[in-house]
Specification:
heterodimer, A: alpha/beta, 6 helices, 9 strands, 23% strand, globular, B: 458 residues, mainly alpha, Serine Threonine Protein Phosphatase 5, Tetratricopeptide repeat, three-stranded mixed beta sheet, 20 helices
Chain lengths: 227, 458
């Protein structure tokens, strides 16, 4: 009878280690010291990718990922507004050169993608003000009133029925969504906040869990006085 | 009811049978290598769409939309039309394929790569277009990708991957249920170790499919009057590793270069002897560069933005050698400025596997600014920095002295002066730039720099 007990303990341990991560938020020293205040933000299009994990391997969910990306971006705006009174401005001003404008946004998103692994490697260094994206942020042609730019990345997994049953038998990662959110100063490119909220459960349908995770994710961001 | 231990044994035995019956055909299939002369027909006529394939097709359509929407497709109509013309010339006349619409597009990515979606979308990166030397080499790349679509390789590979994943899951189950002893131990080891091997065959197409694409590609090149030996030349070019990344996505999981050259040369045989006038024309470097020049400039900019300064210098120099106009000189100057304290070429020692691994680790840890700071702390870094800033200044000046000078050269010079601590000169160059480009998209950025510098100079 020892074997099933050890197996059970292992499954519990694997499940727990797979689903639980330390959630944290890291603020730039100027935000902590309230030298920099975030009143208005521009939320750039989120890039959240989810896959359907079946017994026959992971399958892309391009349409669902797009839908979820839009939902996450909207919810980030809602949470920032409701919880912190931070207003969201329209993404970018219209430009004479629409292609160039599109490239600028795409290139800046790529730049964030390149910086993200470095931030994730040592998230606490955001507190030292170590990360910046440079003043190229001004090329985004944002609204003059924007204080910061929000970058959202995410990865998630939805399990099929077969895979869920399989996981119950032998363990493995549950369905989850993990977001990586960076808030960058719209004037000098400094990374002002990094947070990575996450939750377990079907990422394509969980609305309340997503909201809760985001609310926790922005908990430390100082609230501004509503005007 | 069976005792628990016996149940475990039965489950393990059953799963063990499933694993080995599904692995055996796989193993024998891996061993088969088609003779060089025997290539299948251009189209996979036996292929029938199933539900799984339609899902892949739908994902491909969405991927097309996503690439376009995210600003990753180059909006240069002339360049896209050129790639389209080369692609269309390779498609056998009158060919109609179910659920395939041919589209040829350039993607904004400095890494040399090309890929085909099963719906007929062929993508070539700016990095690849900048690396190659002539239209025939472009045709070689496209012909290879066209074969993947025509022979339905994505669907075939996807079906195969699904089987392998099922096997992996079953192996995991056997491993978990194994009641101990030899069966459990072996399977557990396979499950732990094999994913590396299995993943190698899962990502990208299998060797046989890649080989098929290479050989069919040669047939298509000859039919469209492209010199087939350019397929071998493009392979060699793709082996260039300027950044020491060893990232060769176009054929990451393809057969090794030596192996590829060997079977391609063998297949070419007498086929390469018949050289037509059109084949010679399609090999002209200058004609190709003329058509692709704006793409090459764009790629240099992407390389600089992506921290690939060595590639930027290499390609900008090729641009200047071809056509030393103000814009190309400006891009060479920008590339040297971006190179900063780094060496222009990696040494043999830096290109060893262990050195590249170390560099990769550092790249993940350090930001570009930190890398520059660390290099500047060394005498060699200081030397490089001075040398490259000097080259940059010289090329900016040449860009400004050339016919129809580009105003951005003033901005570049301004940034160079600012870095060197020459505030007054920097402000003068920035102001000149804004005067000449009143509607510049980076106007606000430069104005802020001017204000900050003026504040410092007070």
């Amino acid at each position: 009878m020892k074997m099933p007990a050890i197996m059970f303990a292992l499954v519990v341990l694997l499940t727990a280690s797979g689903s639980h991560r330390v959630q944290a938020q890291f603020l730039h020293p100027k935000v902590t010291a309230k030298e920099t205040t975030i009143r208005t933000v521009v939320v750039l299009p989120a890039k959240v990718n989810v896959v359907r994990d079946s017994m026959k391997g992971p399958e892309g969910m391009a349409a669902e990922s797009d839908e979820l990306s839009a939902r996450v971006a909207t919810m980030v705006s809602e949470v920032l507004s409701k919880q912190k009174h931070v207003a969201t401005l329209p993404s970018t001003k219209p430009s004479d050169d629409a292609d160039q404008q599109k490239y600028n946004v795409a290139d800046f998103q790529t730049k964030f993608d390149a910086l993200l692994p470095k931030i994730m490697k040592k998230r606490s260094d955001v507190k030292q003000g170590r990360f910046t994206m440079g003043d190229e942020v001004l090329n985004l042609n944002l609204d003059k009133g924007a204080d910061a730019v929000v970058f959202i990345r995410g990865e998630g997994k939805k399990l099929t029925g077969g895979k869920t049953a399989f996981r119950m038998m032998v363990g493995g990662t549950p369905a989850y969504l993990r977001l990586m959110i960076g808030i960058v100063d719209a004037r000098n490119g400094a990374v002002l906040l990094y947070t990575d909220p996450e939750f377990t459960g079907d990422p394509t349908t969980a609305v309340d869990r997503l909201r809760n995770a985001l609310e926790k994710g922005f908990k430390k961001l100082p609230q501004i006085n509503p005007q | 009811m069976f005792p628990r231990k016996l149940t475990n044994l039965i489950v393990a035995a059953l799963l063990y049978c499933i694993v080995f019956t599904s692995l055996c055909p796989l193993a024998s299939a891996q061993k088969k290598t088609a003779p060089v002369e025997a290539t299948p027909p251009p189209v996979n006529e036996t292929f029938k769409f199933g539900e799984v394939d339609l899902e892949v097709l739908e994902q491909s359509e969405l991927l097309d939309t996503k690439l376009e929407r995210d600003g990753l497709v180059l909006a240069d109509e002339a360049a896209n039309a050129y790639v389209r013309r080369v692609g269309q010339a390779l498609i056998p006349q009158g060919l109609k394929l179910e659920r395939v619409t041919w589209r040829f597009r350039i993607v904004r990515d400095p890494q040399p790569n090309a890929f085909a979606l099963p719906n007929g979308s062929i993508y070539v990166t700016t990095g690849l277009l900048t690396l190659i030397d002539n239209e025939s080499q472009l045709a070689a790349i496209i012909a290879h990708e066209l074969t993947h679509v025509m022979r339905r390789h994505t669907y075939v590979q996807n079906r195969s991957n699904r089987k392998k994943f099922l096997t992996m899951n079953v192996m995991a189950a056997v491993g978990a249920y194994a009641p101990g002893g030899i069966v459990g131990a072996v399977i557990t080891v396979v499950t732990t170790v094999a994913p590396f091997i299995m993943m190698a065959t899962i990502y990208g197409y299998s060797r046989d499919l890649e080989r098929e694409a290479d050989l069919k590609g040669i047939d298509m090149m000859i039919s469209a009057e492209y010199a087939p030996e350019e397929m071998v030349n493009v392979m060699k070019l793709l082996d260039t590793d300027i950044e020491g990344e060893n990232i060769r996505l176009f054929y990451n999981d393809h057969p090794s270069l030596d192996e590829r050259i060997k079977y391609l040369s063998s297949y070419l045989g007498g086929r390469a002897d018949k050289v037509t006038q059109q084949m010679e024309l399609n090999r002209e470097r200058a004609a190709y560069f003329q058509k692709i020049e704006p793409v090459m400039r764009h790629d240099v900019q992407l390389a600089i933005n992506g921290g690939r300064a060595r590639s930027a210098v290499y390609f900008a120099q090729r641009l200047v050698d071809f056509h030393a106009d103000s814009e190309n000189l400006y891009w060479l100057a920008e590339s040297y400025r971006a190179l900063g304290p780094r060496t222009q070429k990696l040494t043999e020692k830096e290109l060893t596997n262990s050195a590249m691994k170390d560099a990769q680790k550092k790249r993940v840890k350090r930001t570009a600014e930190e890398e520059e700071r660390d290099l500047l702390a060394t005498p060699a870094g200081q030397d490089n920095w001075q040398k490259h800033q000097q080259s940059a200044a010289e090329f900016y000046q040449r860009a400004l002295n050339a016919e129809n000078p580009v105003p951005v050269a003033h901005r570049g010079l301004g940034m160079l002066h600012e870095k060197l601590g020459r505030g007054t000169e920097a402000v003068a160059e920035y102001e000149k730039y804004l005067e000449l480009s009143p509607t510049a998209t980076d106007r606000e950025r430069i104005q802020r720099r001017i204000e900050a510098l003026k504040e410092k100079l007070k």
